[in-house]
Predict the 3D structure of the following.
Amino acid sequence: MPDIDQAHEALERLDHLDRREVDRPGFDRRAFLRRTALTGVAAGSVGSILSACGSSASSGGGSSSVFGSHASYKFVFVNHVTTNPFFTPTQYGAADASSLLGCSYQWTGSESSNVNQMVNAMNSAVTAKADGIAVALIDLHAFNAPVEAAIKAGTPVVAYNADAVGNARLSYIGQDLKKAGEKMGERIVSDVGSGDVALFIATPGSANLQPRIEGAEAAVKASGKPITLHTVATGAAVPGELSTIDAYWVGHSSTKGMYAVDGGSTESLAKVMQKYGLAGKGVKAGGFDLTEQTQSLLKAGDIEFTIDQQPYLQGFLPVLQLFMYKVSGTLSGLAETDTGLKFLNKETITPYVNTKSRYEGTATAAKVIA
Amino acid sequence: MASVAGGSAAETPPAAPRDPGHSLRVPSRRELFERIVSLREGSIIVVTIVTAIYFSANTSSFFTGTNFKTLLPYFAPFAILAAGEVFVMILGEIDLSIGAMYLFAPILFYKLNTSVGLGLVPGVIVTLLLCMAVGALNGFFVAVVGINSFVVTLAMLFTFEGLALIISHGTPVATPGGQLPLDTFGKVFGGGTYSEIIWAVAIIAILQVVLTFTRWGLYTVAIGSNKLGAAEAGVQVKAVMIRNYMLCSLTAALVGIFEAVRSATVQPDPAGANEILFLAVAAGVIGGTLLTGGSGTVVGALIGALFLGILRDGLILQGVNANYLLFYTGLAVIVAMSANVYVGRARRGHGGSG
């Protein structure tokens, strides 16, 4: 069982005890407050519960009957935006693979794309003798030395979500970002044909987004059509992205098409399209990823498409690969994996809108979707 | 002890009766001894040691040689940032622009090196001088024009983060001198395992001496305690304030370059820099420097940074997930600060009336 559930359970049990006290007729407010304060202290000690869970490693359930008795491996995911909702399904994927295989995982890194913090977290993972590390290689330079050092120290490292050319990581699990950009570029060529087109990107140059811009530019150039691309940086926070894109449209209303290469910008772009009713005025738009807002605005026809890259698999497959690599004694497990490039339109988005699932991060409970 | 404290209280300006050690004169040897036994940093040292013991007992990998090296970059850069910030906080002011200097300095350094063609060391020196000029500008607006320091430095934070994005075109680049294999420059300026901690210890030692034993330090405390009184006593208030802002920008720019060399990349994303800013101010306050001014310690900034570093590293070693990390960090800071206040009260109770 992953650590996160243990902590949840502990907190919920504490909450539950308090609730019972409130419901009781002879309710003593002072005692309640004292107990609430104690809950805080108890919550603080959950850290030690967590570590206890981590160390009480045993042979993992069903997986040991298949692969033989193995230690409870612990894998660490180093992420650049740990609290970003895009990665909620990724965490579910990692949690599900971990409980399937009798392993545990840790989700850590930086909240704000700070590569120094990510490198620190990687070093801590090596120090803590993690059995494997999955890292989002958002920078072309910063992770080369740390990844080599980790592999040298005996900790296998795979990349997920973003890849860096020349990095020593053992495999990459995620979208082929350049190809995704090219496909988007081809779509821009066929949908717009000519004129000014804006490309919105949250953080230009970051290795998880920039290749998409480059791919789109390459495809447009290869087509030879008279399309002028304008790359616009929107920033990492959704409110700022919204106002940037809004202002861009107001200042450049001759723009024929607007496209975004990251989830936040796509959601903001869809909102701006809706605000000014631009789909009705013939402005083309599309983007990446599946936030709930993006889903519903795509369904309403404000944007033409969004591209799914299956974030769930970007958590599930790294655990699976690292696990296989461990139990096979490095003989098997690693494979370069493209998690896809699926264009969704007004019709094909429907099942996503109608279902709540862990695969899209919209539900916490696991269930088979019929 | 009480008699000495009482004796000095008679000579101290009335605005700072609770801090008998810091008056406008050089302290005697006996007062120095007294100051050491009743260290302002005493309580946070205790709290930090307890935190380290907790993680040592709960995580087998915490108290190891490997983790010692892992821990260094968790606190050394913040200690240097906080050391400069302490000089501004003692004035009763704040400098939020250190986040921008942290971001801006390596980009400026990159441009000076690649576009202007300056060498690595001259590039660093010019970068630091230009960042100090920004600090002087901060000080000018606060001390001479008289705008609230929060507003001035917030504006400068935006301005220079924006400028950093503009001149970098929002694109990360490889740090000059930071690529493998590292040469002497890279090893000295942040790339070596012990580079940042050596700089941190040296800078903190120097600045603590400046704060405790020089006129500059005494004037700084005097201004923070009673600005008007200090001015009437003949202190060049504006000059000292501008100087302190320049120092603060200098340390922030230095850390920006160290961190860019260490990670081999110059990042233009302001989100990461703003988080650094908050942690640095927090390290100063946790270390025992008052946000309201008049009292502070540079060594405390190091301990405060160490406490935050141990907490983050220890929690990650324990396997705490990102969503819980913030939660536990918040709880731990509250618990630690409550203990800090409690220990501090006990210390004052023991150390005499003051």
